[in-house]
From TrEMBL:
It catalyses: UDP-alpha-D-glucose + 2 NAD(+) + H2O = UDP-alpha-D-glucuronate + 2 NADH + 3 H(+). This is UDP-glucose 6-dehydrogenase. The keyword Cell division does not apply. Catalyzes the conversion of UDP-glucose into UDP-glucuronate, one of the precursors of teichuronic acid. PANTHER family: UDP-GLUCOSE 6-DEHYDROGENASE, UDP-GLUCOSE DEHYDROGENASE/UDP-MANNAC DEHYDROGENASE. It comes from Algibacter luteus. Belongs to the UDP-glucose/GDP-mannose dehydrogenase family. One of its GO terms (biological process) is glycosaminoglycan biosynthetic process. Substrate binds at residues 164-168, 219-223, 259, 266-272, 337-338, 441. Residues 331-446 form the UDP-glucose/GDP-mannose dehydrogenase C-terminal domain. Keywords: NAD, Oxidoreductase. NAD(+) binds at residues 12-17, 37, 42, 93-97, 134-135, 168, 275-278, 345. Its EC number is 1.1.1.22. Pathway: Nucleotide-sugar biosynthesis; UDP-alpha-D-glucuronate biosynthesis; UDP-alpha-D-glucuronate from UDP-alpha-D-glucose: step 1/1. The lineage of its organism: Bacteria, Pseudomonadati, Bacteroidota, Flavobacteriia, Flavobacteriales.
Amino acid sequence: QKMKVTKICCIGAGYVGGPTMAVIAKKNPHIKVTIVDINQARIDAWNDSDVSKLPIYEPGLAEIVKETRGKNLFFSTEIDKAINESEMIFISVNTPTKTYGKGKGMAADLKYVELCARNIADVAKTDKIVVEKSTLPVRTAQAIKSILDNTGSDVKFDILSNPEFLAEGTAIQDLLNPDRVLIGGESEDAIESLASVYGSWVPQEQILRTNVWSSELSKLTANAFLAQRISSINAISELCEKTEADVDEVAKAIGMDTRIGSKFLKSSVGFGGSCFQKDILNLVYIARSYNLHEVADYWEQVIILNDHQKRRFADNLISTLYNTVSGKKIGFLGWAFKKDTNDTRESAAIYVADHLLNEQANIAVYDPKVSNEKIQSDLNYLNTRSEEENRNLVQATNDPYEALKDAHAVAIMTEWDEFKTYDWKKIYNEMKKPAFIFDGRNILDKSEMEKIGFEYSSIGK
Ligand code: NAD
Ligand code: UGA
């Protein structure tokens, strides 16, 4: 029979677990929601009385945490206790691309998810609904079920797939007004228990019920389709640059066809973020594992094109600067993978910087939400050069004008709104001449910049 949910535990206090549970807690004051994590520093930051110090920056998040924390939203490292007392447990841990062994560089690494399943199996004394919130390869629920069903106890587990579709930077709005909530499962009672949690604010007709495998696969498919649109428009951007067509005009013209739709057609230096690449590689890997090579090749092309887009942005910058950036200062505006987030995972900025550093450029970075420490660790993670070299060649500042002073070129890597409001005349005056702008997000006005005196180049124009 349908379980009445009074306590929820979420394992993983990250970009998904934090905002999702905060909204569930806000909309379900009668449910106690506890978010647990093995990372003590992260939990401490979530518990910081100064909400500007939360580990994740999302517009609107701090307000909700302030409102619910200590009432029915809790952050803790006491994982076993939270599992034990809850009827429903979300698994919201990271599922990065494997960096070792079979499927290295392609498959999703499921070790954290499996650890969660084993943790639940070890400590659960009463029946539980286990919800896959992490993005997982299709058929993972089977593995989780097999771990949970072999504990030797008579505790009963129902497994649901409930993928998350929020985008960073708009997470709270996406959670409050989702296009749909997807729940895949076998047990109708378990499905309805979870549907009632969302039902506190999401209309029932927007809560889609499917079988587990459709739900798991829909998440990978949604991300593949979204990323595919960006690679498609980015492919056209290169053709635009050869033909005097303007990619923004083309995007508008095709987007007004309601069959195509206008969203997600913004050409850029390349998509980043923790998920698009990882999820497509995972999809490609799964297809190959079933010997579906045409299917795999088709989706892999989305990644190939994206890598090409990042690469050609860097190459264009170098060739425009008379084929050498050695010893030249390049000012980066933005390091995050998109605006309104402090997340830098797989940001195009990292790869463009790495390429320019190979050519011995000096890079000064300004990003309103990203620290020098984070930038250094992103570059060190690539293992292209020593930490000391990265430290010497790359510096973040907290003043955009300082980052651009005496620079040969500005590279706009993130579309932060504030970049549009800068005093570009002053920036021009303080830069080396000719002063170049490489607008990787097409956010500045070409004719205005040229009037000031800049040599301006953008994507797809
Ligand atoms: P994240 O890295 O920000 O957070 C994951 C957290 O899980 C970390 O804090 C980590 O310490 C914790 N963790 C790992 N193993 C643990 C364990 N055994 N016990 C307790 N805690 C553990 O990751 P994220 O961005 O929140 O992504 C989580 C999942 O959601 C991924 O599968 C991702 O693909 C998916 N997803 C992410 C987004 C997004 O916008 N970031 C959107 C939709 C789906
Ligand atoms: C994306 C999806 O939009 C979410 O639905 C999904 O839940 C999430 O991945 C996930 O599974 O992690 P996210 O990566 O947070 O969300 O942000 P997006 O808005 O999708 O942007 C991804 C990247 O594509 C960014 O680098 C962005 O700048 C770029 N982008 C986006 C473009 O270059 N052009 C566009 O038109 C849109």
